[in-house]
Write a structure and sequence with these properties.
With about 375 residues, the protein is α/β, with parallel strands linked by helices. It is built from 13 helices and 13 strands. It has a four-stranded parallel β-sheet, with no helix packed on it. The longest helix has 20 residues.
């Protein structure tokens, strides 16, 4: 009996679909190319063309790749081995990398290789970050141009020149995201020498100048450590620290937000004896009261919100810390102890919790928006 042509076509399509299905999870995703040129300053502006570009890229991603955008491990001394990052790229579980303690030449080579791998696997290009503060950059990136430490700078002109010098090195390497400046007050021994707070009146104008020059060079600047690390006595690298009562350092942020700082880093600092912003024993990174209610809602912040390193003593003991940080309102989970575990943790909640899914989608779209504004997805 002769089957109708339509039936033969249907059988063929069904056979083809079944034959391809085992490879579906490992397919290479096609990276959407953006034809319109955008600038970094467009990120915070209302721009329908940019909105449309973000939606187009987002629609091309499966849930594995969407969740991956939020995870940023570190590579280098005190970070992961390059081979581990290579595997994460193959597994499609990360969206950026912190270049942590290495050489200018080594980081340049690694970033070139990571992007070749991303292209081969169909991943979105990465955000590449560094703790390129004036006080740390020459130690974190050996071979970088020597600059004065933050507490040694004498004028706002020196601050601008310093930011330009650091940014040139970062652009040469391929780093597009600087976790600087520190806008904390100076009393804390861990962060004091890293801020412009030796003269308190300088913190806002000098931080603003550093941010302006950094972002003018096409690099995302970051104000840290929200809601304030300068007036606590201890070190969040070692253990959770506590702000007791009033949040005295949050006054440093509204002027920088108004100026257009594109990123803010949240500290692993708890807040107690504060009826409005009590974190109930959790670090601020995992507190909705701090990240969403204070920073996003009250202060109206629209930029990227990144956690401080999630392997630090102030947060490492918190169960499901990656999930709690994103649920609190953070966009990027920095340096999770285990990136694969963090991805699985986020993806599991993403697939079963509609509210959390919406939060992850919003964070991923902000990250995609930044990648587009940086020109990482522009058609060459």
């Amino acid at each position: 009996m002769k089957l109708p042509i339509l039936s033969l076509l249907s059988i063929g399509l069904l056979f083809n679909s079944c034959a391809q299905s085992p490879q579906k999870k490992e397919r290479k995703q096609e990276v959407v190319q953006i034809q319109t040129e955008f600038e970094l300053q467009d990120f915070l502006k209302e721009n329908k063309d940019l909105d449309a570009a973000v939606e187009k890229v987002f629609a091309s991603l499966d849930d594995t790749a969407i969740v991956a955008q939020l995870i940023m491990p570190a590579v280098g001394r005190l970070g992961q081995e390059k081979a581990t990052i290579d595997q994460h790229i193959k597994d499609r579980i990360i969206g950026g990398v912190l270049m942590l303690n290495g050489t200018k030449e080594g980081f340049t080579s690694w970033i070139t290789d990571f992007e070749k791998q991303n292209a081969s696997y169909g991943n979105l290009p990465f955000l590449y970050s560094a703790d390129a503060e004036p006080s740390l950059v020459n130690r974190k990136i050996m071979g970088s141009t020597i600059v004065k430490k933050a507490n040694e700078l004498k004028s706002i002109e020196e601050v601008r020149t310093c930011a330009q010098t650091i940014s040139k090195d970062l652009n040469d390497i391929g780093i597009n995201y600087n976790f600087s400046p520190v806008v904390d007050m100076s009393p804390n021994a861990t962060v004091g020498f890293r801020s412009f707070g030796a003269v308190p009146a300088n913190i806002i104008p000098w931080s603003g100048a550093f941010i302006e020059e950094t972002q003018a060079q096409g690099i995302v600047a970051t104000a840290k450590h929200f809601p304030g690390h300068g007036l606590v006595s201890g070190d969040t690298h070692k253990a959770l620290q506590v702000i007791d009562g009033e949040l005295k350092e949050i006054q440093n942020y509204p002027p920088l937000i108004a100026q257009g700082v594109l990123s803010i880093m949240v500290a692993h600092i708890a807040v107690q004896n504060n009826s409005k912003y009590n974190t109930n024993g959790l670090p601020s990174t995992c507190s909705k009261a701090i990240v969403t209610d204070l920073l996003k809602t009250e202060m109206g912040y629209k930029g990227l919100i990144v956690t401080d390193a999630m392997n630090m003593g102030g947060v490492v003991a918190v169960p499901e810390a990656a999930y709690k940080a994103v649920a609190a309102g953070c966009d990027i989970v920095l340096m999770p102890v285990d990136a694969k575990k963090a991805h699985t943790e986020l993806l599991t909640h993403y697939r079963k919790d509609a509210t959390f899914k919406a939060q992850v989608d919003a964070a991923a779209k902000k990250i995609i928006r930044m990648k587009i504004a940086l020109g990482l997805l522009s058609a060459k």
